[in-house]
Structures are given as C-alpha cells and as structure tokens.
C-alpha cells in the first residue's frame, strides 16, 4: 500500500459546508473530491479545467475568492510542516 499523507486546508466554514453538501448529494465526499482533483491535476500536468481564456489574468480573477487572512496564516506552512516532520523523525 502506498504511503498516506494528510492535507489540511483552511477555508470559510460556510464554503466547506456547502461543498460537503454538494459532494454528499453526488454520492461522494469532499475529501474524495480533493483526491480526485489532485489526481486529475497530476494527469493533466496542471489545473484539470480551463480557468480562463486569458491565462495572464487568472490569479487576478480568482484572487477575489481568496481569504487574505487565511492566505497570510498559510504563508510558510509547507516549510514549517517539513521541519516539524523531520524533527519528529530525528
């Protein structure tokens, strides 16, 4: 069996609840949808859908949905997680 890893994502609670409800109605879970998204991203070597016709403006267009407070909290989180992971194994 392949190694498993945990992904933690901060998001608006209302958005999470709506996504969970949506995927439950589709007969799956939000967690499974994230796994599907990740696999399809790898398969496509990029986003598994066309985000915009003008790729140069993609971030600007999507940034209105971002939560700047959560983005700031997440800054450097990958590096911190890797340091913590390796400190535990030492």
Characterize the structure shown.
The protein has 90 residues and is mainly alpha-helical. The chain has 5 helices and no strands. The model has no long low-confidence stretch (mean pLDDT 82). It is 59% helix and 0% strand. It has a domain of 37 residues. The two termini are 24 Å apart. This is Addiction module antitoxin, RelB/DinJ family. One of its GO terms (biological process) is regulation of DNA-templated transcription. InterPro entries: Arc_rbn_hlx_hlx, RelB/DinJ. It holds the Pfam family RelB.
**Biggest β-sheet description:** none
Shape: globular
Q: What is the H-and-E element order? A: HHHHH
Count of helical regions? 5
- Provide the residue-averaged pLDDT: 82
Number of strands: 0
**Percent in strands:** under 5%
Q: Roughly how many Å apart are the termini?
A: 24 Å
As a percent range, the share of helical residues equals 55-70%
Radius of gyration computed on alpha carbons: 16 Å
User: What structural category arises from helix and sheet content?
Assistant: mainly alpha
Low-confidence stretches: none
Organism: Anaerostipes caccae (strain DSM 14662 / CCUG 47493 / JCM 13470 / NCIMB 13811 / L1-92)
Protein name: Addiction module antitoxin, RelB/DinJ family
Pfam families: RelB (PF04221)
InterPro entries: Arc_rbn_hlx_hlx, RelB/DinJ
């Amino acid at each position: 069996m392949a190694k498993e890893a945990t992904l933690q994502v901060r998001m608006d609670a209302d958005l999470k609840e709506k996504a969970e409800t949506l995927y439950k109605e589709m007969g799956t879970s939000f967690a499974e949808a994230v796994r599907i998204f990740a696999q399809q991203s790898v398969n496509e070597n990029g986003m598994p859908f066309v985000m915009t016709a003008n790729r140069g403006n993609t971030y600007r267009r999507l940034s209105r949905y971002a939560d700047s407070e959560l983005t700031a909290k997440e800054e450097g989180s990958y590096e911190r997680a890797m340091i913590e992971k390796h400190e535990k194994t030492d």
